[in-house]
Every structure is written in C-alpha cells, then in structure tokens.
Amino acid sequence: DTPIHAAINETVGVAEIIEKPWAKGFINAILRGIDRDSEIIEKNKHYSHPSWLIKKLKQDYPKNFQEILIENNKKAPMTIRVHPSIQRDDYQQQLQEINIYSQTSSIAPQALILNDAVSVTKLPGFENGSCYVQDTSAQLAAQLISPKKGELILDACSAPGGKATHLAELCPEANIIALDSDKQRLSKVQENLDRFKNHNITIQQGDARDQEWWDGKLFDKILLDAPCSSTGVIRRHPDIKLLKKPKDISQITKTQSLILGNLWGLLKPGGRLLYATCSVIKDENVHQISQFLDRFKDAKNEKITLPWGDGDIGRQQLPQKEYDGFYYAKLIKNR
C-alpha cells in the first residue's frame, strides 16, 4: 500500500504532466483536507449519521450515544393502539387468526407491536376505528394527561390527531380542542375523527404562537406536542439525517419557547401542561423545560414516576426496539 503522503505527492505531480501547474496548490489542499478529515468521514460512514449529530448525541449522552445511532439505523416496528372498547388480548387473538402476530407493550396498555408491518386494510375493523397506527411512546401522552369528565383540554399542534383521538377514547365526556395552523393537516384530523366517530373533539385552525384563535376560556389541561427536530424517530424518517442542520435546532428551540410561553397564559391556575417532543436532543427537552421553569415562577415540575425513560425534569425515552425516542414533561400551574 502506498503511504498517504506519497500518494498525495504523486497526484499533485500529475498537474505538471498535464501541463496544469497552476492546479498543484488546489489539488494538494483538497487531498490533504480529505486526509485530515478521513477519521470523521469514516465515522460518519460507519454510523450513517452527519458529524454534527454524532457530536451532539455524544455530548448529550456520552455513555450510550452509540446505542442511539445503532437504533436509528434499524427498522422501526409497526405498532397499533387498540380501541379501549376492545380487549387488547381479544384483538391480538383476532390478528393471530389471520396470521398477523404481535407482542403486547409493557408500558402502554393499548399497544400491540406487530412482528411484521402490514397494510392497515388487513387490520380487522380498522375502517370503523378498532385501532390506530401509533408508536408506543406516542401512546403515553394521553395516559399522562389522564383526561377527566367535564375538563376542557387543548391538544396543541394536533395534526394528524392521534393523541386527540386517544384522549377522546379514554374520556368521551372531556371537551377537547384540536389546534393546528395547517389547514391541510387538519383535514387529516377530521378523517380520523370521522373514522373513530369522536363527538367530543372540536377542530380549530390557529397558530399556537399567538392567541388570535382563542375564545378566552382557560384550559384545565394542555397537551403541547411541540415542533422539534424529530431526532427520536429517525428510523422512521431517515431523511431527517440529511434535512436537519445545526442551525435548525436553534430556530426550533426558539419556536418551542415562544409556544410554551404563549400557551401557559391559557392554562387555569392548578392546571397541567404536558410538553412532548419526538426528539432526543436535550436543548429541545430538559434544557428547554429547565429554562421555562426559571422564567415562569408559577410553574412547577411534576416528576413522572413510571417504568420507562429517565430524568428528574421530564422523562426522556431513547429509541429502542419497542418504542421511538420521546420526551415528556408535566408542568403544574400554581394557584
């Protein structure tokens, strides 16, 4: 094997042979740059992630960043949420009778994780709302909100409506507002409402960053599924690795902070706000909530003590075989 420095010198010498001596410096700089960055290039190739994201994950999770990168490159499972009117075990049996095999989730009581992905048309009763395709981690939101009869609940950034329909399933007597700024995406929410025959959800077009859409009634509970980098669901959307850049994180955290501050003013004293992202980047999650608690003295962190995830301020779930990467934080507004 030719040593790298010798190969570079030989290649630079070609410029003389082809009578392009002016290119020698340019060729030399390019090749030495490649040699200098070869370790980074090799690492990027090994993990199939951009270097900025590898660096960020290593900074946030020095002990297990490699596990996150490896999980991101695996195939994501297809998980369904069984309607609470149907016993999960019974539905699992129905699936098994048509050779669709699944595992029950240990953390989400309505979740079935399919051994292999199938067309939704093969799922018994899908068109009539028997189930909804939703990752295990996303199914935890409604559990954490725990909707009660008569409560006015805002599902902010609601589209496509998976969490809103889950809230409605768990408590048909709660009043739910599904808010989103995108008219086209709200049509998807309407499709889901029609399929599930939810009558306690009102669709509202509006921007969670302002209050122009609000009718002045304070909410008992707010679910904020905040805009984020989606770095917890890379295995479902691998193009995130190409589309997201470091500068995007800064803009995302500013938007999150703006929405959080705005929605906090719409919450009743004694009310609860559940903050959620499908990100694993701490700036969007625990750091965001820590800064919020510093800014708003009437806000208190309610510790989540459940057998999943990790953390004292909110709970971070990293991507694993059974579930996507997700973050949840419960905030109480002091009376």
Q: Which segments are poorly predicted (pLDDT under 50) over 5 or more consecutive residues?
A: 37-41
Tell me the major beta sheet: 8 strands, mixed
Shape: globular
Q: For the residues shown, what is the average pLDDT? A: 92
Which sequence of SSEs, written as H and E, runs from N to C?
HHHHHEHEEEHEHEHEEHHEHEEE
Q: Kindly report the name of the CATH homologous superfamily of the largest domain.
A: Vaccinia Virus protein VP39
**Count of extended strands:** 12
Pairing-aware structural class of the strands and helices? alpha/beta
Description:
The protein has 335 residues and is an alpha/beta fold. The protein has four domains: 1-36; 46-73, no CATH class; 79-133, Alpha-Beta Plaits, CATH 3.30.70; 137-333, Rossmann fold (3-Layer(aba) Sandwich), CATH 3.40.50. 39% of the residues lie in helices and 19% in strands. It has twelve helices and twelve strands. The protein has helices spanning 4-17, 24-36, 38-47, 51-60, 65-72, 88-97, 136-145, 162-170, 183-196, 240-243, 246-264, 286-295, and strands at 79-82, 102-104, 111-114, 131-133, 152-156, 175-180, 201-205, 219-225, 267-277, 299-302, 315-317, 326-333. The strands form two sheets. Strands 5, 6, 7, 8, 9, 10, 11 and 12 form an eight-stranded mixed beta sheet that branches. The chain has a four-stranded antiparallel beta sheet with strand order 2-3-1-4, covered by helices on one side. Helix 1 (4-17) runs antiparallel to helix 2, helix 4 (51-60) packs across helix 5 (65-72) and helix 7 (136-145) packs across helix 8 (162-170). It catalyses: cytidine(967) in 16S rRNA + S-adenosyl-L-methionine = 5-methylcytidine(967) in 16S rRNA + S-adenosyl-L-homocysteine + H(+). Keywords: Cytoplasm, Methyltransferase, RNA-binding, rRNA processing, S-adenosyl-L-methionine, Transferase. It comes from marine metagenome.
